[in-house]
Amino acid sequence: MCIMNFKRLEHTLGKLNTFSKQGQGINRLAYTDEERQATQYIIDLCEKEGMEVNVDTVGNVIARRKGTNSALPAVACGSHIDSVYEAGKYDGTVGVVAALEVIRSLNDDNIRTEHPIEMIVFACEESARFGFSTLGSKAMAGLLKKEDITNLKDKQGISIQREFSKYGLNVNEIKEAERSKEVFKVFLELHIEQGPVLEKEGKQIGIVTGIAGPTRFKLQIQGQASHSGSTPMNYRKDAFLGAAEIALTLEEAAQSEASRGTVATVGVCDVNPGAMNIVPGMVEMGIDIRGISIESREVVIKELYHAMQRIEKQRELKMSIIKLNDEAPVKMDENMIDSIKETCEQYGNTYTLMPSGAGHDVMNMAQLSPSVLFFIPSRNGLSHNPEEYTSLEHIAMGAFLLKEEILKHAKVSQKLVR
Amino acid sequence: MCIMNFKRLEHTLGKLNTFSKQGQGINRLAYTDEERQATQYIIDLCEKEGMEVNVDTVGNVIARRKGTNSALPAVACGSHIDSVYEAGKYDGTVGVVAALEVIRSLNDDNIRTEHPIEMIVFACEESARFGFSTLGSKAMAGLLKKEDITNLKDKQGISIQREFSKYGLNVNEIKEAERSKEVFKVFLELHIEQGPVLEKEGKQIGIVTGIAGPTRFKLQIQGQASHSGSTPMNYRKDAFLGAAEIALTLEEAAQSEASRGTVATVGVCDVNPGAMNIVPGMVEMGIDIRGISIESREVVIKELYHAMQRIEKQRELKMSIIKLNDEAPVKMDENMIDSIKETCEQYGNTYTLMPSGAGHDVMNMAQLSPSVLFFIPSRNGLSHNPEEYTSLEHIAMGAFLLKEEILKHAKVSQKLVR
Known about the structure:
The structure is a homodimer.
Chain A: H1 6-16, H2 33-48, E1 52-55, E2 61-65, E3 74-80, H3 93-108, E4 111-113, E5 117-122, H4 135-140, H5 146-149, H6 160-166, E6 184-192, H7 197-201, E7 205-211, E8 214-222, E9 226-227, H8 239-256, E10 263-272, E11 278-279, E12 282-290, H9 294-315, E13 318-326, E14 330-331, H10 334-347, E15 351-356, H11 362-365, E16 371-376, H12 392-410, E17 412-415
């Protein structure tokens, strides 16, 4: 029992990562040809394993392995395969190929379970392309309204509506992707840590207690474009210098909230018109503030608002801010956490309990069913980076744990001896 | 005598500004279809006035009106018609259409001069497209080496070499654009101020005593891209925060040198990879530092270097800086300054002596011949901006002054009474 083929897993992961637009890293952004082709590759593999596969109206893939009792709710697991720009090979993909390997190994061993097992590949987990994250799991959990996404456009101005049409999906039928609580028994997500904690602490598994939902803002700063040579310093309304002050103030505010785990990031800063000899007239910033404590996150957000008022006045700038999204921290299921702890102890895997600074599809699935997330280490804590790396040994450990937990919840009903 | 047709000037200026790529302002960047078409429009008008027109190997237009004594050196004037991104309608163009109106009015009145008169339209004055300014006048003054420009590319990665070929110009024949001191008697440039001084002081004409040459840098800051949610603040190597500190330090340094007129600008800041949920891993900044005092400019540059060292260490970033160009301040000719002062006094125009914070083609032409630059006011000091505005009244005043000065230097030899 529990014989898994990690060479096969490694091969599937390698093949999956050939679906990428050229670049320094992986570029398989949501609703692009590369991502949709990769999705089809996974669908084909699932069908080969005898699973029933459906793609819902937002592009989530739901692959189902029948249980012996068709009346029982599903034990579900999954992750995503879309990526950020210049991404690594492991973020999301590990959870998908590990789930597939669980199914394959059950088939190899002719193990049947009472509960059906579902493997889900969520669409558009990353916000990189459309500034909107975990779109697929939000739709599945009934947390998505049509108005949330109809006006989304990528950097090139391509609308999400156009991409939906291109791939046979439908913005008007979002509600059809919604599923009910009754169909799930539990949901499990295996993911790489994307941070340095496990490596620093020398642990193999991170069992996540809660997920910090991000609050995101778009901040537009309006100054006055003018000639860089002939505008004396004291007559300037330099939008970029306002942006610089905002970024440093945010850093300071997050640092003073470090003990409560809150982080703040300016990942986007577009300077207009963007020429050497023009004082910047307008800047658009993307701000991401996260914490597992709502109170702490609010402290940083208040600091942002105060800084805006102060800098607007001092520099004679005009700032306008839009809150793009605001997700509450989500707790993971305590029984499932205890179950993973037990399994780790049983097999001698070291683990730590930790929060997740990154958002994941599991936080939406937690609205539908008891859910849990667990991590395997990322080398140097790197993720969203071409140098992202998790060893096959750690992936195997995660996949093994995933299989053990799935079998606990899905209950082995019979094993056919060959 | 001295009857000029300012309605005609206004019409030509309006027509010239129809050559622009669509945008909020004027977009007629160096070596684009729009700029080359505008150049052809001016060539046609010059030929209609009986001038002999040549385009040199870098795209400068030299239109010559014969003098009665062909052995005498030319009285030259001119400016440019290329623009920055989202520019105004007056920067450069005013000096060109005013020069053309001088020629037209001389023809109207059948006025011949002893010296030939040259009207020059300089190519690629603005650095906006290729990060290299006053290319045409540098080539003419023998200040341009082939190596200075062969590797230049615009934001889209299009090389200047490709554009040269496209428009029948030749990077390998730069030296053929060079001209000797003997061919010029004087050079005059009329330009809008592009700053707030004339308006603030309530003067009509700014007579420029010297031009602050810019020192320009490209600064690359290398940090470490990482996940914005799962990288604690103290483990980050955020390249953008390093850039923010550099920009604010530069501002402070320039402010403390304000009495000596030095200014510093970060007009370009490209954040990579540029996504909401990734801590910036790399930033490229464009820095422009100018002063009429070399010593003062060096103070600011030293501050930049100190800040780089400090921030590299504190934030564990790696910075590399390239000096793109470094132009010395240039003095204008004292006799020509006195001559303009006299003319202003004669006609009751108010004027002030002032430095020019912006670079102009005249600073290169000053290597070939006694030269002068004079300004007319810019409303609100705005330039390099769609809202740039100079009234027709002020343009007429500048064109009139240009004609008076040209006639003084070129010497009227005969006037045919009709």
